[in-house]
Amino acid sequence: MRRAAIAGLAAAALAAGCGGSDSVAHVGSATIGKTDLADAVDHFQQEAEAEGRPFPDKGTSGYRTVERQALALLVYRSELLQSAKKLGVGVSESEVESRLTGASAEAEEGGRFARDTVRAQLAYEHIYTKVTGGVPPAKRGETITRWLAKMKSEYDVSYEAGFAPAS
Fold first, then answer.
1. How far apart are alpha carbons 158 and 62 in whole angstroms?
2. 39: burial class by Cβ within 10 Å (0-12, 13-18, 19+)?
3. Relative to the CA of 74, which of 53, 114, 117, 159 has its CA 20 to 30 Å away?
4. Which residues of 1-21 are buried (b: 16+ CB within 10 A; e: fewer)?
5. What does the pLDDT look like over 25-84, one tens digit per residue?
6. Strand pairing partners for 26?
7. Segment 64-67 long-range contacts (CB within 8 Å, at least 24 positions apart)
């Protein structure tokens, strides 16, 4: 089954004419592109600069660590969004807009990364409400933790060459 999924991804990439050249990872039915990763790393660099913290230079091991952390975040977000949809608790554009309108000016100006952050937060909130509904408050943390662990095991995640997490 796993071989069929990998073959399907390869065929889809070839059919799209990209051969995986713009992809860094595949999460279930979603693809994370190089632009997505670059946007995330740029966001973290801007945050570091705004806070007066040093940011590693491109090509260094420190920079590669930031890339891996950003990619792990993007994979997690993709899993959340796909899971929310499966549970029937997707996130609408109007919800994202509403949350951004109530956010700080910095969040509103944060571009696509900020929008995606808000979308993932809303997905998590909807999932939490659905998964822990009817669960006693003292057990909700344990319940969502178990559910998230199960979610992570449900998605095949594959990485393009050079983008796999450090082992």
1. 23
2. middle
3. 53
4. eeeeeeeebeeebeeeeeebe
5. 999 999 999 999 999 999 999 999 999 999 999 999 999 999 999 999 999 999 999 999
6. 31, 158
7. 66/41, 67/37, 67/41, 67/163
Nearest CA to 48 out of 22, 21, 69 is that of: 69
Residue that has been written with the tokens 């109530």 in this structure: 102
Tokens, residue 16 = 């799209």
Long-range contacts at 5-9 (CB < 8 A, ≥ 24 apart): 5/156, 6/158, 9/158
CA dihedral over 135, 136, 139, 140, signed as positive or negative: positive
- The span from the CA of 167 to the CA of 152, in Å, is 17
What is the enclosing helix (H) or strand (E) of 18?
A: none
Whether the CB-CB separation of 105 and 128 falls below 8 Å is answered with: no
- pTM reported for the whole predicted model: 0.81
